[in-house]
């Protein structure tokens, strides 16, 4: 297929994706919020409750991160670092993992991450939210809102290669061979 013909067809597909995103937003807005427990997390400064993570914001993004042992979760978190000021202009943001707070702080410093981190290690938070199955952790994001004194979850989705939460996949989609067998690493030569 000629380059111009391919480009026009790809533009049509991208419009269809945009239309689907609109439908996703409409459906998401109609979802009934899910009441959740005011979970307690560990931090280097001591315990903190889910409700305290909002600060002065009405909404809170909690990233379900598998911890320092996952290069994919590290890839996503590296990308959040650049988005952080933009996200925090609108909502609170925190990354939660099963790693203990000291391990989180050490890994966070090694990556230059600026976002807050909390440990859910000694809670049922990840499992209750659907991000722990068969003894393993799963990556994703949950969005919470305050409703008076209560906290509710209004959205969530999992993360994985090719998703919308890590732009590298979309850049690789522009390569004729796509991501091929590329895998993220902690460091590149």
What attributes characterize this protein structure?
alpha+beta; Glutaredoxin; six-stranded mixed β-sheet; two-stranded antiparallel sheet; 23% strand
Helices and strands: which structural class?
alpha+beta
**CATH domain class name of the largest domain:** Alpha Beta
Mean pLDDT over all positions: 95
CATH superfamily of the largest domain: Glutaredoxin
Q: From N to C, what is the helix and strand string?
A: HEEEEHEHEHEEEEH
Q: In which range does the helix fraction lie?
A: 25-40%
**Low-pLDDT runs:** none
CATH architectural group of the largest domain: 3-Layer(aba) Sandwich
Principal-axis shape: globular
Tally of structural domains: 2
Report the sheet with the most strands, covering strand number, pairing sense and barrel closure.
Answer: 6 strands, mixed
% residues in beta strands: 15-25%
Total helical elements? 5
Radius of gyration: 18 Å
Give the spatial strand order of the biggest sheet.
1-10-9-4-5-6
Reported by name, the CATH topology of the largest domain is Glutaredoxin
Question: Strand tally, please?
Answer: 10
Terminal CA distance: 37 Å
What does this structure look like?
This protein is an alpha+beta fold. The chain has two domains: 1-30; 33-173, 3-Layer(aba) Sandwich (Glutaredoxin). It is 35% helix and 23% strand. It has five helices and ten strands; from the N terminus they run αββββαβαβαββββα. It has helices at 3-30, 71-88, 101-111, 125-128, 168-173; strands spanning 34-36, 40-41, 48-49, 59-64, 92-97, 116-119, 132-133, 136-137, 140-147, 150-158. The strands form three sheets. A six-stranded mixed sheet has the order 1-10-9-4-5-6. A two-stranded antiparallel ribbon has the order 2-3. Strand 9 (140-147) and strand 10 form a beta hairpin. The longest helix is centred in the first third of the chain and has 28 residues, at 3-30. It is globular, with a radius of gyration of 18 Å. The two termini are 37 Å apart. The model has no long low-confidence stretch (mean pLDDT 95).
């Amino acid at each position: 297929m000629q380059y111009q013909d391919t480009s026009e067809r790809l533009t049509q597909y991208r419009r269809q994706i945009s239309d689907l995103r609109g439908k996703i937003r409409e459906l998401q807005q109609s979802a009934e919020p899910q009441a959740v427990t005011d979970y307690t997390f560990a931090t280097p400064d001591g315990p903190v409750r889910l409700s305290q993570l909002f600060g002065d914001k009405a909404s809170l993004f909690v990233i379900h991160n598998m911890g320092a042992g996952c290069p994919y979760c590290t890839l996503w978190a590296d990308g959040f670092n650049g988005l952080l000021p933009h996200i925090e202009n609108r909502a609170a943001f925190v990354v939660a993992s099963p790693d203990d707070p000291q391990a989180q702080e050490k890994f966070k410093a090694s990556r230059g991450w600026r976002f807050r981190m909390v440990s859910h290690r000694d809670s049922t938070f990840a499992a209750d939210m659907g991000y722990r199955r068969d003894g393993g952790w799963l990556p994703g994001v949950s969005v919470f809102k305050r409703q008076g004194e209560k906290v509710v979850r209004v959205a969530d989705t999992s993360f994985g290669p090719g998703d919308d939460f890590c732009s590298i996949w979309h850049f690789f989609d522009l390569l004729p061979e796509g991501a091929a067998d590329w895998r993220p690493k902690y460091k590149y030569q």
